[in-house]
Amino acid sequence: MRILIIGGGMITREVLIPAVQAFSRRHGRDHLLIASRRGATLQRISDEFPGLEFQAYPDPACSDPEASRPEAYREALADLEPPAAVIVATPDHLHTGPVLEAIEAGFDCVVQKPLCLSLEDSRRIAAAAEDKAAYVYTDYHKRHDYSIRALRHRYLAGELGEALCASAYIEERREMPLKNFARWAQASNSFDYIGCHYVDVFYYVTGLRPKRVTAYGQKKMLASLGHDIYDAVQALVEWENGAVLYVQTSWVLPDGNPNLTNQGFQMTGTQGEYRADHADRGTNFCTQPSGYDRFNPYFCKPYRDWNHPERIVWEGYGIESVIQPLEDILSLHQSAAGLSPERRLAKRREILAGLIKTRPLPEQAMVATAVLEAAHRSLAAGSVPVPVEF
Ligand SMILES: NC(=O)c1ccc[n+]([C@@H]2O[C@H](COP(=O)([O-])OP(=O)(O)OC[C@H]3O[C@@H](n4cnc5c(N)ncnc54)[C@H](O)[C@@H]3O)[C@@H](O)[C@H]2O)c1
């Protein structure tokens, strides 16, 4: 299979490339293409992954590595041949264009969360995917975390009764808006960027749909440095059965916070409660070069290969959440191979009708997007409650 990654930033280096390598180890060698704005970004990937073979768009050897080429991914799409998957890993507000173009070109997609930031865009993506029988999966990796899977399993088994209320916190170090996302932090906020995870978790676990959102935000520390960016955003999400979810987000934690992201979830039902720290998994390191490190061994971490101990493999729910859609896409191609165009389309529709029940395809992923959009409207109107309209 050919895999095109659009966007060569943090998630591509820290999760997507290791996940594609893990997928290739399971299913045979894949042909990788990576498109980003700048050749320098792709040169950095070459430097950090010696031996990784990929076609670069733009090619840093043939162009000014610092020149911005936001349309270079179109050349990659034009060079891509099926069977192929397109992974969209551009900033939050720049998912829609590449996703729609990939679908239009006949490809299946894996999109980094959130699917997009407006309900209108998610409707366009859903309609395009429906029209072409395309698979479009949003990488809500918490669905693969055993802690969340256990909650869902026991909730669906009725052990917690009916959801009444829940609270989530997810907060990152200040390096995110100040350094890592300095180019696009003003187009997003901490609720869009990380809060969406726990909105999707609540929906994934309960199957309830959101009804109303009230959002609050504070601009203080980042504003004092001259950035018109929220330090923190909180949202109250009311659900169709009257349950309430409170999500607390920020991205101004001190540099010395021992992990990039503090995060956890609590949920109360009529018959039981769930409570989990999703950052502190009870495994910590303290080393001379790196200091204290609160270590989550379950997300996406390097380990020694069982059979080739000289080799490093990356494992965890962050990896599985990318491998699952790549395997779905491979299986879609295999199931429809050799069929006429009409029968191929019918076969894909039949398979997709089954997958929509269990995967964050657009109909599911748009739930969190609808909440994000309502939160934006609530913030803009001075924290008034805003209905979520599907
Ligand atoms: N699943 C996760 O664990 C996880 C973690 C972090 C980020 N994310 C999501 O992944 C996405 C990317 O985040 P990131 O951390 O890699 O951000 P980043 O800023 O480090 O990288 C984004 C990259 O996209 C590139 N880009 C922008 N416009 C482009 C275009 N037109 N064509 C090609 N490339 C373009 C940028 O140049 C940059 O290299 C975001 O949506 C984010 O929310 C997911």
From TrEMBL:
InterPro entries the record matches: Gfo/Idh/MocA-like_OxRdtase_N (IPR000683), Gfo/Idh/MocA_Oxidoreductases (IPR051450), GFO_IDH_MocA-like_dom (IPR055170), NAD(P)-bd_dom_sf (IPR036291)
Protein name: Putative oxidoreductase YcjS
Pfam families: GFO_IDH_MocA, GFO_IDH_MocA_C3
Domain Gfo/Idh/MocA-like oxidoreductase N-terminal positions: 1-138
Domain GFO/IDH/MocA-like oxidoreductase: 149-274
Gene Ontology molecular functions: nucleotide binding; oxidoreductase activity
Keywords noted in UniProt: Oxidoreductase
EC number: 1.-.-.-
